[in-house]
Amino acid sequence: MSQDFIPAAKPIIGAEERAAVDAVMATGMLAQGKQVADFEIEFSDVLLDGRASVAVNSGTSGLHLGLLASGVGPGDEVIVPSFTFAATGNSVALTGATPVFADIELDYYSLDVAHVESLITDKTKGIMPVHLYGHPFAAEAFAALAQKHGIDLYEDAAQAHGAALNGKKVGTFGKFGMFSLYPTKNMTSGEGGMVSTSDATVERNLRLLRNQGMETQYENELVGFNNRMTDLHAAIGRVQLTKVMGWTKQRQDNAAFLTGNLEGVGTPKVAPGAEHVYHQYTIRVPEGRDELHARLRSEFNIGSGVYYPVPNHRLPSFNRVADLPNTEIAAKEVLSLPVHPSVTQNDLERIVTAVNTIVKAGA
Ligand SMILES: *Cc1c(COP(=O)(O)O)cnc(C)c1O
């Protein structure tokens, strides 16, 4: 194997990020402070058309606090996908509410509107679909459904920085939206999360909950957490924010090349009016997905990823019985190919040749 390994994901950390961290170190003020405050304002400007954002120490904390700030708690149900990262359902369970797992549709792998509606009960407090792989879910349809039933819409936008539907950015549809800043996401702060909201009460609750329930020291208003972002992490995030739109363009260009040249596999669809930011470039392989995954690595030195092989309702942590046929199909057939901004033209050609060769031979 003479050619370099092409990883499935690769965070880009440059000299500017290192200098920004160093500058914070030099001040001696490391915890949540001015960097975090500036990062929140800049994140709102660049990615949220001005909607307010609140920084926390991880995406998972962002979902957890967003739900708590929206009044979700014991006795409530929140409808979530099973085909997602575990944090989606975990964050609901951590509030004491019950995650109710619904099926997905197979075009964009996001929650199926009709199946969600069939699961709404008098305990349902809200619906939390995921903008999976960077493709926006049917946000307008879900907003209408939530309104019809008098419940809330929350957005897990962990993978979808800058994605939009009909010109409206994700993270501006729901009561709150959450963006993860984990290293493999479209931009990073090391670890971190950003919660968007246009509801002043939710915003204030988020600011209280991340900081021991206090706005003024020793005047704690409620029982809260220490889920603050540090100024070191915010400094990294601020630099990344200046680059994320350019990286997204590269992801989209890489995706266009793959879609134009791959043969014999299902390439990602894009809904009318949707801006897909390709956190993942995910193909469907009805036969031999696992062989393709293994042979890309062993014969062509190309990384790929299965997101997600085990539907969350079947994880030992939830262990629920549910009939979610599309979820089971997706878990067996999806494969994500490298699409990140460090993938070169030569890499793209290698990926296309490798996939087409293996699939043609009948993987
Ligand atoms: C990454 C991710 C999260 C959690 O974010 P962390 O920053 O890792 O805590 C939540 N939901 C989805 C869909 C994710 O991909």
Automatic annotation (TrEMBL):
Q: Give start-end ranges for the coiled-coil region(s).
A: none
Name the residues annotated as catalytic in the UniProt entry.
K185
Report the record's Gene Ontology biological process terms: polysaccharide biosynthetic process
Query: Per its Swiss-Prot or TrEMBL entry, what cofactor is needed?
Result: pyridoxal 5'-phosphate
Any Pfam family matching the protein: DegT_DnrJ_EryC1
Q: Does the record carry Transferase as a key word?
A: yes
**What keyword terms does UniProt attach to this protein?**
Aminotransferase, Pyridoxal phosphate, Transferase
Q: Give the molecular function GO annotations.
A: pyridoxal phosphate binding; transaminase activity
Alphabetized InterPro entries for the sequence: DegT/StrS_aminotransferase, PyrdxlP-dep_Trfase, PyrdxlP-dep_Trfase_major, PyrdxlP-dep_Trfase_small
User: Domain of life here?
Assistant: Bacteria
Transmembrane ranges? none
Gene3D superfamilies, alphabetically? Aspartate Aminotransferase, domain 1, Type I PLP-dependent aspartate aminotransferase-like (Major domain)
| Modified-residue entries (N6-(pyridoxal phosphate)lysine), positions | K185
User: What's this protein's family per the entry?
Assistant: Belongs to the DegT/DnrJ/EryC1 family.
Q: What is this protein called?
A: Aminotransferase DegT
Q: Which organism is it from?
A: Arthrobacter psychrochitiniphilus
